[in-house]
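R.M. (postdoc): so does anyone remember the format we settled on? I'll just put the structure tokens first.
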């Protein structure tokens, strides 16, 4: 069987479909009514109002037959479940981190880590903070600083590792902020910057800088397997190595990690925080008991721990990953052929439309990313998400210096949609692009102080 990443080939599924779910495309009139009732915020739409849902790849994967079977061996013992023992064995084997604390999802793991380590006046560097990571840093009074390389901010740059951190800037920050940096984070892959990977060599340099300054390095590893795939494909000396081998090299450079297993764990719920620091692990467990549950279940049903253990291993399968990346590239090629501008090279979990080139006539005051996401839904019932001035702004202001990129993300759920589904979604975007000059902006009518993209409301201008 040809690999799904063969040039010019359609993404060939390395699986058979065993269960199907009926979906239907709402009419244009129904879509218009849905937008109005949702306050023109796609987060407020119901699943029945969406045909192709590319809002997020988080928790939207299709589980395998082995994962569904794993649910049936759930041992719902409150403390010391055998499912936790299996989960712990898998995470330790994949990462080498000895202390693993389960949580119900990634932001819960972030809450445990940052509420324990971050304090007012502190600084937390990252290649690029995503929304909840940034929110947890800010919530604890610290400053979230993005230190991605210059090429990360150029949507047309062909740099193979645009998730890399600028090590010179990191070194300077750590040198000038002694005692103020509780940890350095690296997000694999860099979601805010287009799902772009981090090279093994760059992570090694970041790790060396952290060691020189005595600052721990933590990874946001929710898409680590996709990152390892790109390392294998693009980095010198890595071809032919297994995903697990590359992963162990990545993890060996860090002191710990947080993970939303709703991405490269292929589950609908679950996550964890892991560390080499025994004393920190005890503090994290104390917080876990208050906020999530006992340390051997962490707010999850034990059957979900079992499904997560199976999914973490399945995500390292090369055929699965080749198909996963090929689906993203299939959509990108279809958009590129029509001249649709998007961030290049495409990353591992979605396509990020370059809003500033797509809607060059709309100023930031018109929230052009939100306007584009609305139009894509209006055109074909396809839900996407703005990653820009709405997501990374606060209050009602459209201006935000932390959002140099204005993007709309088409995130592709794992093992869910076929080629025809993705072709339909891509063609809807192309039709919007063809009428882009007629698209108007929106105004924000309701704005929470933080994480406003989830609950803000809008109206057409």
């Amino acid at each position: 069987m040809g690999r799904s990443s063969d040039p010019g080939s359609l993404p060939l599924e390395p699986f058979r479909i065993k269960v199907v779910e009926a979906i239907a495309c709402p009419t244009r009139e129904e879509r218009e009514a849905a937008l109005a009732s949702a306050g023109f915020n796609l987060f407020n739409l119901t699943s029945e109002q969406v045909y192709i849902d590319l809002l997020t790849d988080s928790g939207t994967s299709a589980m395998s037959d082995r994962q569904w079977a794993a649910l049936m061996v759930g041992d719902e013992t409150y403390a010391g479940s055998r499912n936790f023992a299996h989960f712990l064995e898998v995470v330790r084997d994949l990462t080498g981190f000895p202390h693993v604390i389960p949580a119900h999802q990634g932001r819960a793991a972030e809450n445990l880590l940052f509420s324990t380590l971050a304090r007012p006046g502190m600084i937390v560097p990252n290649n690029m903070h995503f929304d909840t990571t940034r929110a947890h840093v800010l919530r604890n009074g610290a400053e979230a600083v993005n230190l991605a390389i210059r090429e990360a901010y150029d949507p047309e740059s062909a740099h193979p590792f645009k998730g890399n951190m600028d090590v010179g800037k990191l070194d300077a920050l750590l040198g000038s902020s002694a005692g103020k940096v509780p940890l350095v984070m690296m997000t694999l892959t860099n979601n805010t910057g287009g799902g772009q990977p981090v090279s093994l060599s760059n992570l090694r340099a970041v790790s060396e800088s952290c060691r020189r300054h005595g600052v721990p390095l933590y990874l946001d590893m929710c898409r680590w397997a996709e990152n390892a795939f790109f390392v294998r494909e693009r980095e010198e000396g890595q071809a032919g190595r297994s995903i697990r081998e590359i992963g162990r090299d990545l993890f060996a450079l860090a002191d710990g990690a947080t993970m939303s297993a709703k991405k490269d764990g292929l589950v609908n719920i679950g996550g964890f925080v892991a560390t080499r620091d025994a004393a920190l692990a005890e503090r994290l467990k104390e917080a876990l008991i208050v906020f999530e549950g006992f340390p051997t279940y962490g707010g999850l049903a034990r059957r979900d721990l079992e499904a997560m253990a199976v999914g973490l291993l399945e995500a390292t399968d090369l055929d699965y990953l080749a198909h996963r990346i090929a689906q993203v590239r299939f959509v990108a090629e279809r958009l590129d052929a029509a001249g649709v501008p998007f961030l290049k090279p495409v990353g591992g979990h979605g396509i990020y439309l370059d809003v500033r080139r797509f809607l060059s006539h709309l100023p930031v005051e018109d929230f052009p990313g939100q306007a584009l996401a609305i139009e894509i839904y209006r055109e074909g019932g396809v839900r996407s998400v703005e990653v820009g001035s709405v997501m990374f702004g606060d209050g009602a202001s459209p201006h935000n210096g932390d959002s140099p990129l204005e993007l709309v993300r088409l995130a592709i759920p794992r093992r869910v949609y076929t080629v025809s589904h993705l072709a339909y979604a891509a063609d809807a975007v192309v039709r919007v692009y063809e009428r882009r000059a007629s698209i108007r902006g929106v105004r924000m009518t309701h704005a929470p102080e933080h994480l406003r993209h989830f609950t803000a409301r809008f109206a057409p201008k």
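R.M.: ...and that's the designed sequence above, right after the tokens. Also worth knowing: The radius of gyration is 21 Å. The chain is about 40% helix and 10% strand.
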